[in-house]
Amino acid sequence: MRAMAGYETRTRRFTRAEYERLIDLGVFQPGEAIELIGGELMVAEPQGAPHYTAISKTAKALETVFGPGWVVRSQGPIRLDDDSEPEPDIAVVPGARTIMLARIPRVRSSLSRWPSRASPSTGSARAVSTRGPACRTTELLNLIDRVLEVYREPAPDSASPFGWR
Amino acid sequence: MTQAEGPGLRRWTRHEYARLIDHGFLDEDDPIELLDGLLLVKEPQHSPHRTAVVLVAKAVERGFGDGWFVQTQSPIILDDRSEPEPDVCVVRGSPRDYVDSHPTRPALIVEVAQSGLRIARGRKAAAYARARIADYWIVNLIDRVLEVHREPVRPGPARRHWGYAAIETLGADATIAPLAAPSADIRVADLLP
């Protein structure tokens, strides 16, 4: 089949504001694991036992290391930019928990995502912020190879899905 | 109902799609169609595309005759998560038979494709085959041929594995008779812009 220039499969994108309105309107199923990444509504990875165990062990370890003044959030939404609101497995954000209840945090110092089945490309797409270096450190606990991948110093990269790596 | 398909794009049901329209997320004029749960952006309508749509509509309307009607770029219902808007389709009966709900089983679907040729042969063919559309044509504007897809089959277990077993490519000098109107004699040349 000959290669087609230009138009490929494109789907309707959503802004973060639209996404939050969809949630408020109750359009999604209760408990549905979805997140907005670069304007695309993604279904989150189903959680197996190793995934769940890794999250709780990591949360505990990070809470100890960061100490007071930080909140370790598990699978809560964070506002990355105008068209991204992912729910990382772990996010460490400054501030007390009482403030977090009132609003979705915008600033985070560390993001962690633990894909056990996701392909490498999915992993890297989710490891970057979509519209620039919003996040200083991203860690990816790779359950396939049982290693921790640490991403620091966000830099522009035209070859990456969102222009950053 | 959302099927678990692992990480990937969230799929929409027809019911949810209707709610998106009701709440103003999608406008009726937006170039969007729901195909297999995905909100696909439709191929941009260049003049050759629009011309071919009009030509095809005229030719099949003449070929099918009474007892059928032709609709262009209007919604049909395939299943609980597909509500595409094919360029041309031929439906039994009269338009008033479908006042309360969209047609579900057109006798013929025709897509005009230029930049969207890959989708017409891929995602759309799979969705139409799965809905047992017996006769699916693609007016291929790049090679100026008509691709006739027949005999929907499912060679694999996945939804996307549906496809057509008999695919024939006809040049401008050929003629074609729709399966549901076997006595019609439509010249491929009459479908090309």
Strands of the largest sheet of chain A, in order across it?
3-4-5-6-7
Give the biggest sheet of chain B: 6 strands, mixed
Classify the secondary structure makeup of chain A into a structural class. Answer: alpha+beta
Mean of pLDDT of chain B: 92
Average pLDDT, all residues of chain A: 73
Q: Radius of gyration of chain A over alpha carbons?
A: 16 Å
Give the SSE string of chain B. Answer: EHEEHEEEHEEEEE
Helix fraction of chain A by DSSP (H/I, runs of at least 4): 10-25%
Outline of the structure:
The complex is a heterodimer of chains A (165) and B (193). By secondary structure, chain A is α+β, with helices and mostly antiparallel strands.
How would you characterize the overall build of this protein?
The complex is a heterodimer of chains A (165) and B (193). Chain A contains four helices and seven strands. Chain A has 165 residues and is of the alpha+beta class. In chain A, a hairpin with a 2-residue loop joins strand 1 and strand 2. Chain A starts with 15 loop residues before the first helix and ends in a 13-residue tail after the last strand. The relative contact order of chain A is 0.14. The N terminus of chain A is likely disordered. By secondary structure, chain B is α+β, with helices and mostly antiparallel strands. Strand 2 of chain A pairs antiparallel with strand 1 of chain B.
Fold blueprint:
The complex is a heterodimer of chains A (165) and B (193).
Chain A (H helix, E strand, L loop, with lengths): L15 H9 L9 E4 L2 E4 L5 H18 L3 E5 L15 E5 L2 H6 L7 E4 L6 H8 L9 E6 L4 E6 L13
Parallel strand pairs in A: 5-6
Antiparallel strand pairs in A: 1-2, 3-4, 4-5, 6-7
Chain B lengths: L7 E2 L4 H9 L9 E4 L2 E4 L5 H18 L3 E5 L15 E5 L15 E6 L3 H14 L4 E6 L4 E9 L9 E8 L4 E2 L9 E2 L6
Parallel strand pairs in B: 6-7
Antiparallel strand pairs in B: 2-3, 4-5, 5-6, 7-8, 8-9, 10-11
